[in-house]
Amino acid sequence: MSFEMWAEKYRPKHLEDMVDQKEIVERLKSFVKSKNVPHCIFAGPPGTGKTTAALCLARDLYGHGYREHLMELNASDERGINVVRETVKTFARSRSIGGIPFKILILDEADNMTSDAQQALRRTMERYTETCRFIMCANYSGKIIEPIQSRCAPFRFAFLPREEHDNYVKHIADCENVQLPPDGAEAIFEVCGGDLRKAINTLQSAASVNKPVDAKLVYSITGRASPSDVQKMLNTAITGDFLGARKQLRDMIQKYGVAGSDIIRQIHTEIFKATEIPELWKIKLAGIAGEIDYRLVEGSDEEVQLSALLARLVEAGYEIKK
Q1: Which of 37, 103, 187, 243 could lock 215 by a disulfide, CB 3.0 to 4.6 Å apart?
Q2: What is the per-residue pLDDT across 274-321, written as a single tens digit (0 to 9) for each?
């Protein structure tokens, strides 16, 4: 089996190859058709196709030699005010050779740029708009200053729906001759929640073991506890068996190597799935889980706080019985 990065290997090459983002793709295709692109902000969660959309736009606009008309700066690159004044400015002010009179500069993770760098970029975007168009990819568009936002056309990306996510992951599994049972695909979606890049990397990591990628294997390689184990622990606590629930918790941490903050998030999720817990108590338990999570973030002892959470669940169980 090839250990080439599948996320790059199966990245869409053209706009029509992109999954699910139909409205965005149609708008970008209109830019290609008119051979004119405004400054853009691609905002949305990770793994939803923001950088891919920018690269597909450039490839469809310029053709095979698109790299000559494109510069991509990532969060791993230094992007302080000096980089904007030197590297970005030098690229932006030189005219493109060919039928398209402007070049494209992709600023990935633009919301991580310093405020000074964004202020300097604002003037560069305004001054060199004839020779360079900027595409800014960000998880949180609110972290980009208002003057830049007002100069850009906004595009909002959303997580992929379950059906599209599963179809794409199964397509990759078929191409790579990987056995992916239905419970494996469900576990990948449960772990990744619509982040397609994370889903592809999870599939590749699991496939490297050379076994069928079932739910047990997925949870094992991602360091997540199985939802069924978490639900079993919750039921044990609700029925009043504190020591039994505590033992199950310790076994899960040892078995999966899961961190305390991660197990709390899973408990929080499973609380709302539990049918035997009344609606009012789900609200109370969600508040308790949030309080314990905050204590862990502040540096409290993991085992003490998780035991306290189980104790509150046992108390809730006694109250529910009454």
Answers
A1: 187
A2: 777 788 888 888 888 899 989 988 888 888 888 888 898 888 888 877
Q: How does pLDDT run across 127-160, given as a tens digit for each residue?
A: 888 899 999 999 988 889 999 999 999 999 988 8
Comparing CA positions, the residue from 253, 260, 254 lying closest to residue 294 is: 260
Question: CB count, 10 Å around CB of 52?
Answer: 24
Name the DSSP letter for residue 15.
Answer: G
Domain boundaries, given as residue ranges, for the chain: 21-156, 162-222, 227-321
What is 111-129 written as a DSSP string? GGS-HHHHHHHHHHHHHTT
Residue 2 has pLDDT above 60, yes or no: no
Please tell me the CATH code under which domain 21-156 is placed: 3.40.50.300
Q: What is the pTM of this model?
A: 0.80
Give me the amino acid identity at 263.
Answer: I
Nearest to 234 by CA among 176, 294, 177, 281: 281
Amino acid, res. 293: D
DSSP per-residue string spanning 235-250: HHHHTT-HHHHHHHHH
CATH of domain 227-321: 1.20.272.10
CATH of the domain spanning 162-222? 1.10.8.60
